[in-house]
């Protein structure tokens, strides 16, 4: 119920709850993918006589209900995506604006600060009125900001007795924000303290350096949460201007999931859209360009581990190679325990607790990124091994077995994505924001079924060159590339497959 | 706060609770407890197995063992090689992981529902046939040491928290970290893991939870087929926990490479398990809500926005624990504010709870938040399985969540004041100050 601190490294959770330690990689949120599985799914050859249930499971066609996504545009130009669901008496609303830090225009932290001040004051309402107005009725309001997106979320009970006053308040809060000077000073101070806390730990520093290295000269390269020197000069008038421009109805996607009918949903969308400033969608930004030769950055830091990020600008929304890269990456490093990187670097050698790779398709480009942390004495070996594994995969692509298993895994995981409203709302926001077709997920699954090992190999060769990947690290000393002692044989062994289901919502994290 | 609002919330909640999802409970002859929650919204299923074996069950020389064993549960059986478990789950589109806490260890798999037989067979197999090989054990121990470096050793706040816990919960199994003290963790041996497994991983010490698009009729034969043959073994004794006498006021001052100071405060209070008067649990829950139940609660209103002492602060009551509960406060000051000033501000808040009754509006707001969140929590099948597993493992009533709102509605402002006076007292308090090292910038 209580708001998390803005200071991200505060680790509040570990202090207030019984600490939990997981044996896996980060538990990935699974979001919605809807498909009807027609035709035969790739038939798996059960390995041996154990597990005895494998043949039965391999033969059963996984269910995957199709979401009834309804979409329309409001008079003011906002795009609406709606999925009715009356299983629970609740309603989720998410506004996704093209208002992320990509729109900072050189003022690092402007988008983030604007977002943080929503809910701090509106016409005739102070922050206490707003907080009580939502919380007295059991509603939850929040705002957040990423590179592409500014997001405003509301969760309320759907019974009109609660919903109506909550929506009226919501309209005021998002439509008439007052950006009080007092709140600006207070939240700026909180963000500055948060940035100082980030300097205590390696993770945030190396992430920032990675984006700055890959996106030098591009809006994605800026520090999306602001910097110690960029936040202090920001003026209230800049926030007001940013809000008027980027929180305009024409720049908004309104996603809704819950226990309202179409007519009610239309009225709600219309009310929200009218409350926002009038204005068009933001102009598209130039797509970032890949690095053409290796860049190396190292931050010296007295940590026990060395954290290493490898990557390059390598994709974008609308990339025709998207599915091939997605499926291939599941084999390489996106499939958790079933992927080559986890198998070789963690399972076989124990160098890391977690390692993973991914393509994040954002609006104006997106990185391929591999990340891991390892004891500093193993950093040279872990880095060199990982680079060799990537290079080997780019050269060879997946084996037929790896591909078949990856496909079965992806198609089998779709149902998990339709399980709850929280997942559905995230998917709708992404489909709306990135202008994907409403049946995107069905199209995606069809393309997954059709992609070949050769498609993947060629797509990886067009996209990645292991020799160009930036190496950004933090730790006692910069890791060196050394000969790899025991690289797996060419052709590799079968490494099982993957899990997905959060396809459309990937991109922004 | 208007009275009508709570009234209609209660009415709404009664509707939701009335339509509570079916939950079935049965026990196999070997002692395995099975819970089935039917939720037919989507064709998915979550399978979890919970063991009454957490880090509080570890002897002082074997800290971290419960968690290391959890890792070894993925490293192979008589029939599956290391890593095959995870690969099979992934191949059929599932997700799996596990968690170790102070009180328990739990394992889960999530799938599209037609994968249920595989999920159950895999769980039963590692219970019956787990193989802990020396070489695999030592390799996995390296992974766990990396996990410790990542989560604790490279984070000064996490290191400080670990040291603080040692004085905040003295003489209990909660005083050592779940992941284990570094030097002891590094010396764990495979035979310790084998003996831990034999001692705790028996059917009578476990709960199997199956939640999702399933019925009892459908799952019971499958559960019988895979789990009934497990030998009952000997269910290990676990002592009954009671409320501890006050340990006396404790204080820890640490200088660490932090840029922003941090304050920790922790009171030793009853949990739902150890409370002699169960109403104390509900009153402490209300108290925590009044102090930090949201943006309109006292910490945000008075300390963050009013006095501007802190950049961030949080208070919470952890009352669902096997041993005693904790009432925890953490705060990071604004620049120019000392930890002493923050501590004084927080102690003033505690004193206010002891001397002045919370308003009816505050109490109503906390209840509204709890009632609404009970509706929202039903959105997650995994969340429902987690709740059932926790309650069963701690020996609490499974209908706790259905009764929760009703019990909270009985708590009066006087009850909140009474528990503040009785439990939030200096002799039950530990305070930790974490300051930048000498020469560090403030």
TrEMBL record, chain A:
Domain of life assignment: Bacteria
Designated name of the protein: Peptidase M16
Gene3D superfamilies, per database record: Metalloenzyme, LuxS/M16 peptidase-like (3.30.830.10)
Lineage, opening ranks: Bacteria, Pseudomonadati, Pseudomonadota, Gammaproteobacteria, Oceanospirillales
Domain called Peptidase M16 N-terminal: residue spans: 93-221
Region (Disordered): 488-509
Pfam family name, one: Peptidase_M16
InterPro entries found in the cross-reference section: Metalloenz_LuxS/M16 (IPR011249), MPP/UQCRC_Complex (IPR050361), Pept_M16_N (IPR011765), Peptidase_M16_C (IPR007863)
Domain Peptidase M16 C-terminal, residue spans: 234-409
Gene Ontology terms for molecular function: metal ion binding
Taxonomic source organism: Alcanivorax nanhaiticus
Automatic annotation (TrEMBL), chain B:
Signal sequence residues: 1-19
Protein name per Swiss-Prot or TrEMBL: Zinc protease
Manganese listed as a keyword: no
Peptidase M16 C-terminal domain segment(s): 188-368
Family annotation (PANTHER family): METALLOPROTEASE (PTHR11851), MITOCHONDRIAL-PROCESSING PEPTIDASE SUBUNIT ALPHA (PTHR11851:SF49)
Cofactor(s), by name: Zn(2+)
Domain Peptidase M16 N-terminal span(s) in chain numbering: 33-173
Family to which this protein belongs: Belongs to the peptidase M16 family.
One Pfam family recorded for the sequence: Peptidase_M16_C
Molecular functions per Gene Ontology: metal ion binding; metalloendopeptidase activity
Source organism of the structure: Alcanivorax nanhaiticus
Keyword vocabulary terms for this entry: Hydrolase, Protease, Signal
GO terms under biological process: proteolysis
InterPro entries: Metalloenz_LuxS/M16 (IPR011249), MPP/UQCRC_Complex (IPR050361), Pept_M16_N (IPR011765), Pept_M16_Zn_BS (IPR001431), Peptidase_M16_C (IPR007863)
């Amino acid at each position: 119920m209580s708001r998390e601190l803005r200071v991200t490294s505060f680790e509040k959770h570990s202090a207030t709850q019984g600490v939990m330690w997981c044996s896996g990689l980060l538990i990935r949120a699974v979001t919605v993918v809807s498909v009807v599985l027609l035709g035969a799914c790739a038939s798996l050859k059960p390995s041996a006589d154990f597990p005895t249930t494998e043949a039965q499971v391999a033969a059963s066609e996984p269910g995957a209900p199709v979401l009834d996504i309804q979409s329309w545009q409001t008079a003011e130009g906002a795009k609406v995506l709606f999925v009715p669901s009356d299983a629970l008496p609740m309603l989720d609303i998410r506004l996704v604006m093209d208002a992320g830090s990509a729109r900072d225009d050189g003022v690092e932290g402007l988008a983030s600060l604007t977002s943080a001040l929503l809910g701090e004051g509106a016409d005739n309402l102070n922050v206490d009125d707003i907080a009580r107005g939502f919380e007295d009725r059991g509603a939850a309001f929040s705002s957040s900001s990423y590179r592409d997106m500014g997001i405003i979320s509301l969760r309320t009970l759907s019974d009109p007795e609660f919903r109506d006053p909550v929506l009226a308040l919501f309209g005021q809060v998002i439509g008439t924000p007052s950006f009080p000077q007092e709140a600006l000073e207070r939240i700026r101070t909180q963000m500055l303290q948060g940035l100082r806390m980030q300097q205590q730990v390696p993770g945030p520093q190396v992430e920032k350096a990675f984006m700055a290295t890959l996106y030098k000269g591009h809006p994605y390269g800026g520090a999306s949460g602001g910097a110690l020197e960029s936040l202090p000069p920001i003026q209230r008038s800049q926030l007001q201007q940013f809000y008027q421009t980027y929180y305009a109805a024409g720049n908004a996607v309104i996603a809704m999931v819950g226990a309202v009918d179409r007519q009610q949903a239309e009225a709600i969308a219309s009310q929200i859209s009218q409350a926002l400033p009038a204005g068009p969608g933001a102009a598209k930004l130039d797509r970032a360009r890949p690095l053409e030769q290796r860049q190396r950055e190292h931050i010296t830091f007295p940590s026990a581990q060395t954290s290493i990020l490898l990557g390059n600008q390598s994709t974008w929304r609308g990339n025709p190679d998207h599915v091939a890269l997605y499926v291939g990456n599941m084999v390489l490093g996106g499939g958790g325990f079933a992927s080559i990187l986890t198998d070789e670097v963690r399972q076989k050698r124990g160098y890391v607790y977690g390692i993973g790779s991914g393509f994040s398709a954002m609006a104006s480009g997106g990185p391929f990124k591999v990340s891991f942390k390892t004891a500093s004495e193993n950093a040279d070996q872990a880095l060199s091994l990982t680079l060799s594994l990537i290079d080997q995969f780019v050269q060879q692509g997946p084996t037929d077995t790896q591909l078949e298993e990856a496909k079965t895994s992806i198609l089998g995981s779709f149902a998990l994505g339709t399980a709850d409203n929280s997942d559905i709302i995230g998917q709708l926001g992404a489909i709306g924001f990135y202008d994907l077709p409403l049946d995107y997920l069905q199209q995606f699954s069809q393309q997954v079924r059709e992609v070949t090992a050769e498609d993947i190999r060629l797509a990886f060769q067009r996209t990645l060159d292991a020799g160009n990947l930036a190496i950004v690290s933090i730790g006692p000393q910069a890791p060196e590339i050394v000969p790899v002692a025991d690289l797996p044989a060419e052709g590799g062994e079968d490494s099982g497959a993957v899990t997905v289901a959060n396809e459309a919502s990937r991109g922004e994290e | 706060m208007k009275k009508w609002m709570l009234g209609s919330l209660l009415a709404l909640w009664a509707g939701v609770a009335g339509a509570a999802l079916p939950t079935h409970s049965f026990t196999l002859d070997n002692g395995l407890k099975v819970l089935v929650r039917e939720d037919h919204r989507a064709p998915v299923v979550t399978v979890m197995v919970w063991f009454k074996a957490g880090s509080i069950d570890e002897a002082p020389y074997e800290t971290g063992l419960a968690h290391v064993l959890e890792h070894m549960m993925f490293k192979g059986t008589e029939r599956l090689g290391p890593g095959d478990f995870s690969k099979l789950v992934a191949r059929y589109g599932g997700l799996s992981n596990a968690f170790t806490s102070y009180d328990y260890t739990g394992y889960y798999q999530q799938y599209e529902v037609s994968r249920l037989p595989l999920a159950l067979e895999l769980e039963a197999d590692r219970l019956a046939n787990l193989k802990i090989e020396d070489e695999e054990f030592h390799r996995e121990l390296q992974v766990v040491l990396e996990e410790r470096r990542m989560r604790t050793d490279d984070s000064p706040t996490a290191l400080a928290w670990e040291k603080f816990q040692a004085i905040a919960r003295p003489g209990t199994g909660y005083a050592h970290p779940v992941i284990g003290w570094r030097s002891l963790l590094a010396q764990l041996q495979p035979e310790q893991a084998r003996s831990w497994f034999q001692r705790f991983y028996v059917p009578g010490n476990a709960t199997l939870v199956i939640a999702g698009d399933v019925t009892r009729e459908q799952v019971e034969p499958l559960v019988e087929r895979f789990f009934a043959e497990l030998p009952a073994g000997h269910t290990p004794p676990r002592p009954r926990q009671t409320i501890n006498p006050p340990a006396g006021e404790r204080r820890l001052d640490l200088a660490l490479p932090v840029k922003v100071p941090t304050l920790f405060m922790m009171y030793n209070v009853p949990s739902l398990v150890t409370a002699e008067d169960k109403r104390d649990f509900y009153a402490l829950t209300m108290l925590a809500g009044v102090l930090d139940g949201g943006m309109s609660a006292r910490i945000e209103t008075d300390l963050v926005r009013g006095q501007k002492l802190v950049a961030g602060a949080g208070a919470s009551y952890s009352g669902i624990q096997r041993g005693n509960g904790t009432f925890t406060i953490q705060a990071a000051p604004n620049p120019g504010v000392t930890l002493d000033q923050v501590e004084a501000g927080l102690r003033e808040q505690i004193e206010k709870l002891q001397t002045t009754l919370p308003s009816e509006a505050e109490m109503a707001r906390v209840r509204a938040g709890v009632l609404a969140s009970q509706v929202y929590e039903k959105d997650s099948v995994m969340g429902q399985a987690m709740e059932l597993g926790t309650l069963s493992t701690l020996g609490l009533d499974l209908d706790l969540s259905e009764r929760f709102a009703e019990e909270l509605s009985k708590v009066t402002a006087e009850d909140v004041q009474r528990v503040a006076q009785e439990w939030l007292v200096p002799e039950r308090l530990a305070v930790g100050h974490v300051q930048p090292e000498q020469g560090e910038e403030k």
